[in-house]
Each structure stands twice: as structure tokens, then as C-alpha cells.
Specification:
220 residues, two-stranded antiparallel ribbon, 2% strand, protease, CAAX prenyl protease-related protein, peptidase activity, hydrolase, Rce1/LyrA-like_dom
Amino acid sequence: MFSRSAWARILPFLVYILFIIAVDVLTRLGVDAQALRWMYALKIGAVLATLAWFWRDYTELHAWRAGALATAIAAATGVVVLVLWVSLNADWMVIGAPDGFNPTAGGRIDWLMVAVRIAGAALVVPVMEELFWRSFLMRWIDSDHFDSLDPAQISVKSFVIGVVLFGFEHNLWLAGIVAGAAYSLLYMKQRSLWSSILAHAVTNGLLGLWIVRTGNWTYW
């Protein structure tokens, strides 16, 4: 059903989701959530290994195609998304009540765990998610031969579907929709997946620093 190019973008995301499901199942079976924190490092390691396996298929990432201005715009977009992400948190904007990722033990922060979490969220997750949501799904909705479709030609239908699905992947669904729209527009306008990856990385990296600073672990 799917080409190798499609699977190269689907499987890293699928690995990520399977780990989330596994943690949820183990939690429901009574395993202490704190004892499962190490699963995040395994999850990121598994996703990174999958990305490395398929790296030759990510031809759009083999060269940096964003100029200085485009890079600045992408980074600024990431900052704006961060501000909106921590602001769009009214009750009706949230699905469920996530426990988050609390790296404290005995009242002290485990800094190694924090470093792994921020590195995973800022360096691995943006690549994995942008490859799936922007590079694959948004273009695949328009064409089975998605890898030959110019990002600038993505239809309004694909844009809306991709953004809404990306939004509801997150507990903060409205913030997710806003973030998805911002990253998608960057991809479509600048025609570079690195632009959306950079914006996504800036958002996630700064969000991690904000979480540690404020102790709002539920945002993780």
C-alpha cells in the first residue's frame, strides 16, 4: 500500500506512538508512572535508530535549503508558538488530565533525565513529527506520489486535515492546531522541511526550559 518513502516517514512516528501506548497500558496495569520515566529514553533511542536506518530516504534533509532570513523567520515562529502553547490552556482547550513527565525524585531534579527529555523533544521529535505530518501526510492526502509534490502545491483540504489531526495528537488540542498551522505554513511557503523542523525544535527546546524553570511538569 505504501512505498518505501512513505514507510520511512511513517515508521519512526509509529514507533513513538507504540511507546506511548505501552506506557499507558503499563500504567493502567498498576505500574508506578514514576518507575516508567526511563521509558522516554528508550522511546527516543528507538525513534532515533529508525530515523538513522531510513536516513538515505530523507533526501529533503540532506542539505540545508533555508537562507538567513528564512532561518530567522522559522526561529521566530518557534518562539511565537511557544508563547501561544503555554497560553492556550483553558479547560475547554485541554483533552484529559495528563500526568506529564516529572523528573524529580526525593524532592530533587534528576538533571540527566531533564537533559535526555529536552534533547529528545528538541532534536529528535521535531524531525520525526515533521517527516510524518508535513513531509508525508499533508502531501499524501493530495497525491499517492507525495514525494514528488512541491510543498507549495499542498491543497487547503490537506492543510486543514493535517493541522487538525496534528492538534488532536496533543492534550492541548487548540495549541496543537495553532502550532500545526504555523509549522505547515512555514513548510509550504519556504518549501523546506528544515524550516518547520527548526521552528518545532525552538518551540520544544524553549518549552522544556520553561517547564523546568516553572515546575509545570504536566506540559511534558
